[in-house]
## 1
Amino acid sequence: MKIYSIGIDLGGTKILIALINRQTGKVVEHVKKKTKKDKGPQNIVKKMLDGIEELIETSGVKLNEISSIGIGAAGQIDRKNGIIIAAPNLDCYDLNLKKILSEKFNLPVFVGNDVEIAAKGEQKFGAAKGYNDFVCVFVGTGVGSSIVKNGQIIYGSTGTAGEIGHIIVDLNGRQCACGAHGCLEAYASRSAIEKRIEGALKKGRKSAILEYLEPGKAITSSMIQKSIEKDDELVLQCVTEASEYLSGGLASIINFINPELIILGGGLIEAVDYFYQETIKKAKAKSLPVPAEKIQFKKAILGDYSGVIGAAFLEDRGF
C-alpha cells in the first residue's frame, strides 16, 4: 500500500502543497506559493504544477510511491468531475483541475472545497477528533464552512452546502466578491477588515497599523494583532465590528444545525485572540438558550496544515 499522498490547499492568498504520510498524518515536506497578485486560472495552474514538481524533487519520494493528489479550493466545486465551478477570490471559473493534474502526473486527482478539507484534517488528526457532529468555520480572504453530521461531510444537493460566507446579513449591504450584496463574507473576513481599515486611513484616521504597512503590501493578521496590542482605536473598532457579524452567523448555525462543536480556524482566528474570544462570547449570547449552553468552541489546531492533511485523504471519499 502506498503511504504518501499530495495535499494541496488552494486559497485566496497562497497555495500550500504538501507531501503527507497517510498513516500518521504528518507533513513530510511542503512548498508554498503566493496567489493573491496572480489570480486567474493560468497563473494558478502553473504555480500548482511547478510546486508539485518542486515538492517531489525536494522530498526525494518518487511518483510511484504516491497514491493520489487531493486539492481543496476556495469556492464551489464539482467534486465528481474535479472542477472549480466558481472561485471569485481566485478569479477561477469552470477550471478542470482533475483533468490537468491527472494528465500531467498520471495520478488519481480529487478536488474538494477548502474548508471541507480543513474539516477532514481536523476530524482525523485535530480539534474534531472524537466528534461526529460539528461545523468548521475558517476566516481568511473569505469566510467558509463545512458541516459534519454523523461523521460525514454534508455536501447538499448541488455540493455547495456550508457556504456560510454567503448568508445575507444586510439586505442592502456591501457588495461581496460573489457579486451579491450583504454577504457575511463582506463584513467578517480578513479582507473585509482590511478594506474598512484602508478606507478609514484614506479619510485621515490615525492608526498604529501605519507603522507596519509597506507600500503595495496587504494588511496581514499579524499587523492587526500588533495594532490591537497597542490598543489602537481604529483596528479595534474594525475587528469588533467583524466579530459582531461573524457571531451572528455562528448563532444562526447554532440555532439551525445544533452541532456539538464549532471549530474556528484561519489566519485571523490564529493570530488575533481578541477576535476569537469576542466572537464566541457574542455567538453564545445571540443563540437560543439551550443550544447556547451546550455548544463547544475550539480553535483549529493543525494550523496551516489542516487543509493539506485533509486534502491528502480526499481519495477516501470515493470519487
Note: The chain is about 40% helix and 25% strand.
## 2
Amino acid sequence: MKIIIAGLFIVLAGVTTISSCNAFEINNYTNNQHNQNAAIETLDPIDKIEQDCISKTADTQEINKCSKKAQQLWKKDINKNLAELNKILSAEDYKKLQLSQTSWENYVDKEYEFINSLTYYTQGTMYLNTREGWRTEILKQRAFILREYLNTLKK
C-alpha cells in the first residue's frame, strides 16, 4: 500500500511539475509575442521606409536598392546627430567625438571588407541582400548611439 501511495505521489509531483513548466512556457511565449509586436509597432521611420520599399518587390536588385537608400538615410542621420552634438559639446569633447567617429569609420571600412569577403564565398543572390542588410545595421547602430548621446545631453 505504501508503495502505491509513494508511486501516486511521484506521478502527481511529475504532473504538477510538467503543468507548471507548460504554464511558464506559455506565459513566456505570450510575453515574447507582446514584446515583438511592440517592437514592430515602434519602427524607426528609416526602417519603415526600407520595409515599405522591400514589401513592394521580390527582385533582389530592387531590394538592394531599398537597403542602400536606408543606408543613405542612416548616414544623413549620423551627420545630423554629429552636427547637433557639435553645438552642445565643448570643443574638447567634440574633438574626442570626432576621434571616435574616425575610429568608427575605420571600423566600418574593415567590416565592409570582411562582409564582402564573406559573401564572396556564398552562392545565391539572397546573400547580396544579406550583405546590404548587415551594412545597414552597422550604420543604424551608430545612428542610435549618437541619438542616445544627444538625448542624454538634452535631459
Note: Confidence is low (pLDDT under 50) at residues 19-23.
## 3
Amino acid sequence: MNAIPKQAPEIFGILSRGQFISANGSRGKLYDVISFEDNFNQLRELFAHTGYSLEHGHNYYYFSQSDEPNLSIEKKIEQFAYYIDVMDFFSSMDQKPTAGTRYRVTQIAEECFSNERLKQKLLALSRREKMVDKVAEIAGDLALSGFFEQEDEDTYKVMDAIHYLEQVITLITIDDDGEQKNS
C-alpha cells in the first residue's frame, strides 16, 4: 500500500470548507496529487473516516456527505437558489460562464449599464450601491466557493468546478402546469 500523500491535510482543509479543487486553477497541483495513480482511492478511504466522501467531476474534486443535518441541507438549498440566479445572470451575458472564461468586474458592470435586463438581474442579486461593487460581491462569492478564482483586482477566471453548478441546475425539474398528478 502506498503512503498517504503529504498534501492530505491541505486537501482536507480546502474541501471540508465546501470548496472545490479544479484542474485549471492555482490549486492545480493538488488536483494532480489527488489524480495521481492510487492517491484518489487512498484519500477517499482516509476521508471516509471523517464523514466525508471524496468525489470527482469533470476536472474537479469536492466532498459530499450522506448524513447531513436538516439545517445544513436547508442552507445548501438556499445557497443553490442564489447560485441559480447567479448562473442565470452570467448566462445572460454576451460571454457565457464556461471553464477558463475570464471576466473583468468593470467590463461586466459596463455591460449591465447598457443592458437593462442584466441590470435588473444584478440589482436582484446584490444590495450594494455601485454596479462595480455588486459585480465584485457576486464574483467574490463564487471565488470563495471555488467556482471562480481571482487573478487580480479586477479579473476572475471561471474554474472547472462550474460544471458542478451546471449539473445540479440541470437536475432540477419544475412542472409547468402546477397541478398535482395522481398515479
Note: Residues 8-64 form one domain.
## 4
Amino acid sequence: MLNFDQLSHLVHEFTHALWLALPLGFLGLMPMSAVSACTRAVYLGPDNLVITGRSMDWVTDMESNLWAFPRGIERHGAAGPGSIAWTSQYGSVGTAVWDIGIADGINEEGLVANMLYLTESVYPTPVPNDSRAPLSLSLWPQYMLDNFATVAEAVAVIEQEPFYIIPVASPDGKAGTVHLSISDATGDSAIFEYVDGELMIHHSRDYQVMTNSPPFDQQRALNQYWEQVGGLNMLPGTNRAADRFVRASFYINAIPQTADPKEAAANVFSVIRNVSVPLGISTPDRPDISSTIWRTVADQTNRRYFFESTRKPNVFWVNLDDLDLSAGAPVQKLTLTDGAVFAGNTADQFQPTEPMQFLEAN
C-alpha cells in the first residue's frame, strides 16, 4: 500500500498532468448549456455474462416511459427532405425522454445503446453534393438498435458515415449536445462522438465506461493517472464527470465476478448508484451536475432490461423474450408518468399504442 508521501506525490503529478492535458475551458466553469451528468459502465462477467448499466442525470423531469418496438418498422430520419430511411431489423425496448426519442435501450440481439451529454459536441456541416443523409439527433440511438446485432457491425457501417446528425434542443430548452455508446452481448463496446465537426469512433472491448466531459480520449488519459494511485488507496469523490469515470472504471471491475445474472445485475446497480447524484443535489457554479432521475441495467446475455426511478421505491424489469417483437406486432408502451409503481417482470403490462413521433430536426 502507498504511504502518505507517495500518495501525495501521485496526486500532485495527476493535478499537474490535468492542467497540461485538458482544454482551458474545462478547467474553468463548464459552458452554461451543460445540464447532464450521466454515467455508463459495462460488466464483463464469467460464462460470457455481459451487463450494461447507466444513470440518467438531468435538471428537469424527462417524463420517461418505456417503449417496445417490433421488427419491420419503416422509419425516416426526421430531418427534412432526403432524410435517411430504413426498416428496423430488430425489435427493441427502450426508455424514452418526453416520448420524442429513445435515450437508452436494448434490442433482441443484446445490442445496447446509451446516449449521454457531451458539452463539447460539434456536429458536421453538410457540404454541396453531400453523400450523407441527415438524421435527427432524436433517432440516433434508435438507428443503432434497429439496424445492428453487434458493435462490429455498427462500427463498419457508421465509419462510412451514411448520415450526419442534425441537432435538436430538448423540450425543456437544453442544447442537444450528446455522445453515444453501444455495447453488445459479446462485451464489445464503441463510443461515437462529434468533435469539431468530425466523427470520432473509439472501438474496443476495453472501453467499458463513459461519462460526460471531456471527450472520451481525454477521459481515458485522466483515468490512467488514477490507476497509478489505486482504487483501494483513494478515489476521487466529487460528482464531476472525470471523477465519476474513475470511480466507475474501478468499481465495475472490482465488484464480485459472478455468472448469476440476478446477482450480477444487483452488483451493476450498486456501481451505478455509487456514481449517481442524489435527488435535490446541484452545484450552483456547475450546472452540468444534475440529480439522477433514473437508472437502467441491461442484461445482454439474457435479454432482460431493468429500470429504476429515483422517485419510486423499487426496481422492475422487462424480459424481451416475453414481448411480441415480430414484424407486424403493435408498438407497445409501459406508462410510468401516471404514478404507477411496478415490480417484477412487466412484459405483460405493456399496452399497444400509437407509434412514437420522434422529434423533428428543422
Note: The CA atoms of residues 100 and 357 lie 6 Å apart.
